[in-house]
From TrEMBL:
This is Fumarate hydratase class I. Residues 12-286 form the Fe-S hydro-lyase tartrate dehydratase alpha-type catalytic domain. The keyword Iron applies. InterPro entries: Fe-S_hydro-lyase_TtdA-typ_cat, Fe-S_hydro-lyase_TtdB-typ_cat, Fe-S_hydroAse_TtdB_cat_sf, Fe_dep_fumarate_hydratase.
Length: 511
């Protein structure tokens, strides 16, 4: 029996799914993160997870993005051979991209446009987050099964691939590779691993694995039933024993699950791909059967734990950004929690590149960074009565190559991003007695609530990468690297790895 699938139904379904996943975490992610939160013993990691859980509930209630990076769209289409496509005169890709465009430009919940074209030279923003990355598979049946994901750049950039020898050990490679990924992928999340096929097949399987339900608690409760499940548990336990923890601060939970897909491969080969999913896990699945567009059912807010993070002045230091001095910055210690108030400047990759080019040409900058703090962020545009849309941090290491220039030539005294800093940046921070601060990735809407005023002050043509001046009140951050060059992303995981090695196993299923 042939089923007719109309182009408008696929377009509208994709648009609705992208809106849905922008503000609703999957229920399986929330339940596993809540378990991890309850068992966490690291105060820093527990606080980070509390921010993520609070942010998640706020987004579910307010229908605003979980993360400011609303992702590059991945669409997997399983098209039944007994399906007739109607209205696809411009091709299947055009319909999918029309859905992406419609979803991202929805005026009630505008999503950030992050896609640039071409990727090598102009890198000009397409302004509507198109095109999507589309994978098509023809299968038996008379329906179209669709998986839609929005993959953030911070986690996508940590994708790893290796062409192993057949006798090489997969577990050893994962345990050696994961620490090199840093914290820019915003743990705790999930690992997708693809083994076999060819290079591109392994990468595709790793990406698809991230769309499977998180079920590690059930797997541990019933026990493994085959060698692949045994391997998943082994990797889950050994990765968490590394002590990397939430946001890389050190703790018990680095991953909530490990998913593995395999495919036959050449006798001489063993392709292995690993891709992490971040704290803003976003994916959905729907089926078109010819009856019209598919819309997902909203989850019940009862699924979220009763975690309501609030700024705590009793254990955090309040900082006035408008009177901040180098001496005060130098007094901060790794792991200190701060609540920032006053004016904050923003800037990320494109702005830093333009600033460096201007300085190299001897030109005057349009913004005075003297004694200022810069926030690495590309925010979502505001809607309704918002001052600013979700505005969480971007990966700090991408700005490492600019750090010496910014500290030496602009008067900047501190920076805010997510994740660790690399050796080059740490050396510059130590040299100039500066500091690098960390905001929680995956808590973008929560952070945005601290922004009380916002205006573009330079490089408006860069869109979400323009330089803003934010007026903030009690914006929560943690000192990641202090003026001595000591990094909490080095000390925290090392301490917790040692502590975990001495601990009796704590069951993941405890609540």
């Amino acid at each position: 029996m042939t089923t007719v699938i109309r182009a408008a139904d696929l377009r509208d379904s994709i648009a609705a799914a992208l809106q849905f996943i922008s503000y609703y975490h999957p229920a399986d992610y929330i339940s596993h993160l809540a378990r991890a939160y309850e068992r966490e013993q690291s105060p820093a990691a527990k606080d980070a997870m509390a921010q993520i859980l609070t942010n998640s509930r706020m987004c579910a209630e307010g229908h605003r993005p979980i993360c400011q990076d609303t992702g590059i769209v991945n669409v997997f289409l399983d098209i039944g051979l007994n399906v007739r496509l109607e209205g696809f005169d411009d091709g299947l890709d055009a319909v999918v991209n029309a859905g992406v465009r419609q979803g991202y430009l929805d005026p009630d919940n505008v999503l950030r446009a992050s896609i640039v074209d071409d990727p090598i030279f102009a890198r000009k923003n397409t302004r509507d987050n198109t095109p999507a990355v589309i994978n098509i598979n023809l299968v038996p049946g008379n329906t179209v099964s669709v998986k839609v994901a929005a993959k953030g750049g911070g986690s996508e950039n940590k994708s790893k691939f290796i062409m192993m020898n057949p006798s090489d050990n997969l577990v050893d490679w994962v345990l050696a590779t994961l620490p090199t990924m840093g914290a820019g992928w915003c743990p705790p999340g999930m690992l997708g691993i693809g083994v076999g096929g060819t290079a591109e097949k392994a990468m595709l399987m790793a990406k698809e694995a991230l769309m499977d339900d998180i079920d590690m608690s059930d797997l541990l409760a019933r026990g493994p039933q085959n060698k692949l499940e045994e391997l998943r548990i082994e990797l889950f336990e050994k990765v968490n024993a590394l002590g990397i923890g939430a946001q890389g601060l050190g703790g018990l939970s680095t991953v909530l699950d490990v998913k593995i897909k395999t495919y036959p491969c050449h006798a001489a080969s063993k392709p292995v791909a690993m891709i992490p999913n971040c704290a803003a896990t976003r994916h959905a699945h729907f089926v078109l059967d010819g009856s019209g567009p598919a819309f997902l059912d909203p989850p019940s807010l009862d699924l979220w734990p009763q975690v309501h993070w609030q700024p705590d002045a009793a254990r955090s230091r309040r900082v006035n950004l408008d009177t901040l001095t180098r001496e005060e910055v130098a007094s901060w210690k790794p792991g200190d929690t701060l609540l920032l108030s006053g004016e904050l400047l923003t800037g990320r990759d494109a702005a830093h590149k333009r600033i460096a080019d201007m300085l190299a040409r001897g030109e005057t900058l349009p913004v005075d960074f003297t004694n200022r703090v810069i926030y690495y962020v590309g925010p979502v545009d505001p809607v309704r009565d918002e001052v600013m849309g979700p505005a969480g941090p971007t990966t700090a290491t991408r700005m490492d190559t600019f750090t010496e220039t910014m500290l030496a030539q602009t008067g900047l005294i501190a920076m805010i991003g997510k994740g660790e800093r690399g050796p080059v940046a740490i050396e510059a921070i130590k040299k100039h007695r500066s500091a690098s601060l960390m905001a929680v990735g995956g808590a973008a809407y929560l952070v945005a609530k601290a922004i009380k005023a916002a205006r573009v002050v330079a490089f408006e043509d860069l869109g979400m990468e323009a330089i803003y001046a934010f007026t903030v009140q009690d914006m929560p951050v943690t000192v990641a690297v202090d003026a001595q060059g000591i990094s909490v992303h080095q000390t925290g995981p090392a301490q917790w790895k040692a502590r975990i090695a001495q601990m009796p196993q704590i069951p993941i299923t405890s609540t």
